[in-house]
Amino acid sequence: MLGTNGSDDPSGVDEVIPIGVQPPRPGTSPFTDSDEQIRAALEDVSVPALIAAVVQTTGDPTLLRGPLRPRRFVPNDFQGGLNDDERRALRTAALDVLRSFRDLGCPPPPPLHRDTILETMSWLVCEDVPDEYVEMFLEEMDIDGTDPRQITLPQNGRVSPEDLPVLVIGAGASGLLAGVRLKQAGIPFEIVEKNSEAGGTWLENTYPGCRVDVGNHFYCYSFEPNDDFSEYFCQQPELLDYFRRVMHRWGVQDHVVWDTEVISSRWDASESVWRTITRGPDGKHTERVSRVLISAIGQLNTPFVPDFPGLDSFTGPVFHTASWDHSVDLRGKRVALIGAGASGFQVGPAIADDVEELVIFQRSAQWIAPNRRYRQPVGPGSKWAMRHIPGYQAWYRFMLLYQASDKALAVVKIDPSWSGMPLSANAVSEQRRQVMMKWITELVGDDEELLEKVTPDYPPMAKRQLQDDGSWLRCLTRSNVELVREPVTSIEPGAVRSGDARYDVDVIIMATGFETDDLSSSTQVMGREDRVLSEEWGKAPSAHLGITVPGFPNFFLMYGPGTNLAHAGSIIFHSECQMQFIGVCLGHMMASGSRSIEVRTDAHDDYVRRLQEELAGTVWAHPSVRHSWYKGPDGKVYVLSPWRLVDYWKMTKWPDLDEYAFS
Length: 663
Ligand code: NAP
Hints:
By secondary structure, the protein is an alpha/beta fold. Among the domains are: 161-302 and 516-662, 3-Layer(bba) Sandwich (FAD/NAD(P)-binding domain), CATH 3.50.50; 311-374 and 420-510, 3-Layer(bba) Sandwich (FAD/NAD(P)-binding domain). Strand 17 (495-498) and strand 18 form a beta hairpin. It is globular. The two termini are 48 Å apart. The protein binds NADP nicotinamide-adenine-dinucleotide phosphate. NADP nicotinamide-adenine-dinucleotide phosphate (NAP) is lined by residues 211-213, 300, 306, 338-344, 361, 363-364, 464, 487-488, 511-514, 627, 629. The site of NADP nicotinamide-adenine-dinucleotide phosphate has 24 residues, from loops.
């Protein structure tokens, strides 16, 4: 176990992170537990994932071919619709195998044949898994621990890795990933980070209740699975700790320049290098010269605070969720929470117990999908299985990814013949709407006024869909909580106004999201002929594959325009695709002896045209969705990816290098 909390430690050291010491990879730690201990652990696991792991442990698919098999793949359930008796029988079969495995000293499992892998996948999800997905899933599962997404450099390249020094902006989830991959490849790099710690969004967002809403065992790097997450959807401190541990484990921290802001980066065509000016903590400006520049600043880093009339006159504390003021004691206070999106809906239930009154200003109602695992701890049996049973965590990850891969595109594509707009976009969307409405009605249906307030008036998934175990809706029924669905019109000393209604409050919390119109806002990037990226983009940012921009050689974006995912996957999955693409480009530069790579304008324009065509037919762009950070000021969508995960994965794994000019 890395990292120990040592508050009682007389040396005063808070935490010790041994650099370079790695715990065994999940699923590879031998065990000597008794039959009874194993039996107890198996009570807690996903039985289908257990059987898949047993198949992996033995290489024998017989269990998949027996009469007991999952009947339906239910999101966030992972028990395959098996009844108690069936689960018991399968656990007993698994126990027999694990007992022999233990008695043999936990030998390395045999390699699995691809056909067996595909058979196992299809068995788990109760349908034929399309062949085109298998490689993508296998990479993501990293089933044999070989980390297939590492950068592969040519053996006898015409340029050595030392000739390709890279500057990375940002040490968030994407920047750290870039650091690990560059370090593995032996490419010199530096990461410039404005904060004094890594973690990006998971460092800055410390609001109460902050947790990830992608299943954690998938929301982690493919090469760094973790068998120790305490919850299925972890809270912010634990995620931050995960990223810090990954950074230390790979020694990336030695490459990070902390408390340092990037002021500008300029392409120097005469030398084919980027010249980046940074400002350090002492205010000193430094020029950093690199062949390659990777921007990993993310899309959600500048808090947005609406310009409410009178905001400056408010007498009490006002702060944004992304810069939570922990010095303010909310106990016994009357609090206004403005905004009820992904952040606000987590804050509400987390503070409602403490405050005297909570007035929530919710401009639009949000679609929320039921998820009973949302605040559930990972039991000791599941952790045991992840740690000791070969493949258990990888197969569990596969199920998480499968439920989040591509099917939801059917929900977001508008059927032009569908008459249900604006409430639903097509038959699948209507079905989903009804499922969510049924659940919402079960929770608050006896209060008609509240039910009306929490019922969205746009199709499912048109804005960021939330998921919950019911805490948010239950919170709204509390006697000290009031939900206002009218707009905030002004703020006065000691009060928030909505039209004629005045709400006296002591504190205002802005859960109002982020500036997303200008994705390059915090740095000035100047390409060939001093073209300025933010000016080129205006309010309509674009990049080929969301990664490269014509006129900006050797410049790569991670989590750039057109790469946010609103239908599937996770940002980490996408970042790994983007880093894979960057690795291919660097490898090609080395092999060909090129000093620069630049996407051709026609390739970029064609890609963006296809992207926009695809987005135009989705609920994300539909005019009935009035407020959404997915939309630019002109109503078009610039931040989202409309592609199937498998297509983006292919585009970034095997890029068409003819679309690039090398020199
Ligand atoms: P958000 O989803 O953009 O929500 C902002 C909220 O503020 C919305 O309720 C919005 O209302 C409201 N608002 C904005 N301007 C307003 C105004 N002038 N008057 C009244 N209300 C106003 O921002 P967020 O909640 O910070 O989330 C942003 C993104 O961060 C998410 O979509 C997600 O990608 C990510 N995130 C993820 C997690 C997670 O993984 N658990 C948690 C938090 C955030 P409207 O809905 O009417 O616009």
